[in-house]
User: Fold these one by one.
Assistant:
Number 1:
Amino acid sequence: MSSFIANVLSIAGSDPSGGAGIQADLKTFSARGCYGMAAITALTAQNTRGVSSVQAIDPDFVAEQIRMIFADLHVDAVKIGMIANADIARAVAEALKPYRAIPIVLDPVMIAKGGAALLDPEAVAVLRDELLPLATLLTPNLPEAAVLLGEPEAARREVMESQGARLMLQGPKAVLLKGGHLAAADSPDLLVSGGRFRWFEAPRIATKNTHGTGCALSSAIAAELAKGLTTVDAVAAAKSWLASAVATSGALAVGSGHGPVHHFHALWR
């Protein structure tokens, strides 16, 4: 592991309200002590109440952004978020294939917090066939896992274990299946890695400030992997940080809908 500050690249969409997407990723990288870089796949018009419009970036330009980063900068880890459509998914996969030895965290962003679709249905097959095999870690929530598997959403822990195991068959080295959509008082996440099931228990925090939690978690994990942690330790560190970011989100006054988490809770007193 290098003695320099780790560099992490996010490949994702832009959220002008700053709570999710590229903006949240860069904040997270900084909060976790890494230097953040970004290749933008899509522009969104959104705020804490929802998404009104999405403008996808030309796939060749997305690929050129990635090419230019790798041509000049050392990249210690990659986080992939919103990819918008099938052509962009293919472009990202082709651009990253030469660098598959680098940790890649794939967060299959499909639906915004307010319910708006953020992934073209035709892109699901490309994501499954071309991006999943490149992933060091796949981080779907329960609705996203159901889409990737083409089956109903898990409602029990034993179904989460079954779905996590079957997602592993699609190529990622590990799967973190997020249980926030379970109808329960807690919010458990399941890590499937090395033939083992590891449950990360967490209480459900009573707050509406959950905008961008998936982006923040996957970015925090990418940052920890970039710093040299194992997948298990990276997930544990990222979840601990995110729990505090959600718990302290009331210190922010951002929007009237689902507000963001407090990325810099450990730095801003």
Note: The helical segments are 21-31, 59-72, 86-96, 123-131, 142-149, 157-168, 213-226, 231-247.
Number 2:
Amino acid sequence: MVDRHQVMSFRVQAQQLDRDEGTLADTAVLDIGVQNTGPDGARWALAVRGVDVTTLSDTDVVLLWTVRGAPHLYRRADVGKVVAALEPFSDADAGKRIYDASKPLKAAGIGNLAALDEVAAGLRAIVSTPTVKGDASGRLATVLPEPYLRFCRPCDATHLYEMPFRLAATRAGLELQLDTSPPVLQRITGFRKAATPGDRFDLIRAYLRLLGPATPKQVADYLDAPVKDVKAHWPADVVDVTVGREVRSLLAADEEALESADGRGTRLLGPFDLFLQAKDRATLVPDAPRAKELWPVLGRPGAVLVDGELVGTWRPRKSGKTFTVAVQPWQKLSDATRKAITAQAEHLAAHRSASLAGVDFGS
């Protein structure tokens, strides 16, 4: 039996949250993708793992709409294998990933994978030069038939369903220009999807390696895939591990690392950091009211990670170039821990090109 602190420590080490220096090449979370949502998104996630992001450019990384339709950052050199890894396991899997868009397609006798291919072909033709998302969507809506389209009340216009558009963009070999709002799509130079992703970029294996031990349902929830399909592609080289009363799987190669894990260090995790994306939230935060505080429906805070445990939440408060970090502790913090959190807040302020006015530790 493995206790939850071992699991947390294993993830700290697997995700390299205990190191001070690293490179893009050796940063493990880039194998599964680093979500780029909000001001403390992908760059900050890399920075807390020791990567110098001050010189990061689109020659090094590529931003794609991928898992759950969210924008994720990857190494540019890996893009062919990444796109291969994102291929749905089946037509049913594709239908689950595109949500309510699958219903009108089914009614029209159009397969989900065929629909993604159709949208991808249309996008590829339209985006011959950098194109704003709204323009690409508007043009695509004029050439695709009704089952692909929906009426958008806020815009008072007819658009493609959002998830087929996003997932087909990557399928079409399109990337998102960094730091554009609204998003600008462009072709990936020299794009070619790999025949297979290989073990390193296989999403089930990557989840187990970085967020294990896990169950098929937890991995399926992360991918928005059917549990049946995830079970059908479950790796053979796993061992059973009991966490609490639940039997989970871990890659056999990581068994020793789990047993000896001792994740150390203090980090201010962004709201969508991979560490917080694990689908066993009760393992991350056993206390239900605290879990509700960390994962509200809207406006997520960041999380304070100290030696393998989440000990509170944090929010940025910026006024001009002055920057304050408001911490809401879940327990009494030692002077040493407060000092370490303040050092991380200084790191965050520098990352945001702001001056740290202080850290508010609440009541």
Note: Residues 52-187 form one domain.
Number 3:
Amino acid sequence: MPTVRTNDIETYYERRGDGPAIVFVHGSIVDSGMWADQVAALRGDFTTVVYDVRGHGRTGGSSRDRYDVALYASDLHELVTALGLERPIVCGHSMGGLVAQAYAVRYPDRLSGLVLVDTFAPTIHTRSEWFLRRVAMNAFVPLVRVLGIERLERLNVWVSERVSTGASGDYEAVERLREDGPTITTPEFTKVIRSMSRAHEYPLDLETVTVPTLVIYGEQELGFVKRHAKEFAETLADCEVDVVPGAGHASNLDDPEYFTAAVREFAARVSRRDDRAGPEAGDDAASAAG
């Protein structure tokens, strides 16, 4: 089982293909298997790297009392460094999108592009979003001890559908993912959920992100995710937005062909730009970062 040391844990990863690198960061309570369709389609033209985020899958947990977005981003930095990846594109879904944002802000010279999938910024804008991200999410912690993770997730899907029909997308695809991979433990679930509910405690200056960015989300996404997509478009220096028709929160699973085509086109464009810029582009970015 391939692993690399990232801070205090052994992180499981899979590396496939050849060419410019794309690192995929999965969402909460799933694992790197969520990117299987993208890896299969892109590995012929790109180096694809997927990994199980701390607390999830084959990476598993650690003895730390709490996790946060800064720690996840540090783990990603250690992974990219250990694998010798040269300024990869970083693609993150939901919680993975928070990790990708933190990585882009903290390590601006260590990526060439950013893909934010069905995600949101740390900032909380409205009372309803505060309720969803602070109250409802924290309520998962005591509920998981009573209901178990699977039943709690089904309850979450039921609630999401009442808030926005279609937001949960093809939930059966998510269930199949969980059948094939290790189950997250209750203590690790607790730390992961709390890290997401506290994400606003680690604000990020997205105006410092200058790499090309693709923001992509499902047409049936929850309203607050759509609002954050608009914020990304207004804040990020070089940003485009794409909507996956008919998809919900896991747009890469709901319509893998559309999603993967969008990522392929974006990655190819970023790679061509880097080729034109020449090898000194990375040095210039490093100098600008200080």
Note: The longest helix spans residues 256-277.
Number 4:
Amino acid sequence: MPDLFGWEFASDPYPAYHRLREHAPVYRTTLPSGVEAWLVTRYADARQALADPRLSKNPLRHRGHAHGKGKVGIPGERSAGLMTHLLNIDPPDHTRLRRLVSKAFTPRRVAAFAPRVQQLTDRLIDGFAGRGEADLIHEFAFPLPIYAICDMLGVPPEDQDDFRDWAGMMIRHDLPDGRRTPRGGVARAVKRMRTYLAELIHRKRETLGGDGEADDLISGLIRASDHGEHLTENEAAAMAFILLFAGFETTVNLIGNGTYALLRHPEQRARFQRAAEAGDQPLLAGAVEELLRYDGPVEIATWRFATEPVTLGGQWIAEGDPVLVVLAAADRDPARFDRPDVLDLTRRDNQHLGYGHGIHYCLGAPLARLEAQTALVTLLRRLPDLRLAVDPDDLRWRGGLIMRGLRTLPVEFTAEPPAAAG
């Protein structure tokens, strides 16, 4: 079996996933944390597992109780009282909480947010367009979704830079001087964010005077709680937390991975730029779907635990065993996709699993798609000769179990003149 989870694997996991799909499509392995889990790599099995009610999202279903030791889930979420969010619960609680927040991500609400996403995108590009060089992760892909989700949640502008710092610590984001966030910093950042969210919820509850006032998501959660929806303060804080956490890192990686894929495939990049110039919305939307399939932001879906013995892909899985659905492997399955290792922005039949499937399908997917399309279109329109500033072999990927993304993405381009950048 292939060597999993080393640096070489992080740089390009797809050959290893190909071998697993061929020889051990449901494979039991020991993760770097020491937890044993099943990896599901074929598309049909993955789709089945994502929608199987026998696979619980509740970490307490794990017979080894690894969550209490920080080995599954988000470090620090238990001690910070942030367990009751959508990634950790099952129906009926999941159904109730998802209904409350789904109103923020309707097509109408997301479309209304488009001008703000464009404004943020232009402002960030303004910050480096006159230099002729940039790190697109630190200066663009990372801050854009942070500020966007903060706006949706209702975090005041003067507090959003603090959120940016905490978010960077939570994903052990590289600092500008090249240092790494200490491992213990993840849990500390989670606790700081929990403290802040509790205070923010308290302040908003005191100032809410009626249904017609604040339209942000946290205010909506408070109103729902006050109107008898049985939403506790812990649930409100946990929901705000996971929407921030899940709502930015996926988009960071979608923009970063997507930009990198386009730069590595000149013909597809040229096709994308022509579509952007022509306003070909169907092709642009399809391009984002293909970038999600080809090298998506979520490599492995979040944890699931068997609530009873389950047979999956011919393998018997015991009650309490963790199951990890490898979205990156499923979305390159030749049994489902024609020429799966080829980036084709015109791909038609593209029912990828990049944002999951079933009742846990990513709630914020419409916002992430809007941000990614706006970011890529604007970036390549304003900086049409954008190019990598380093050899691709010199790029490093963040090691991790769930997400897949670049640490940095150094680029060069013809600098905008001062008037254009202003």
Note: Confidence is low (pLDDT under 50) at residues 173-181.
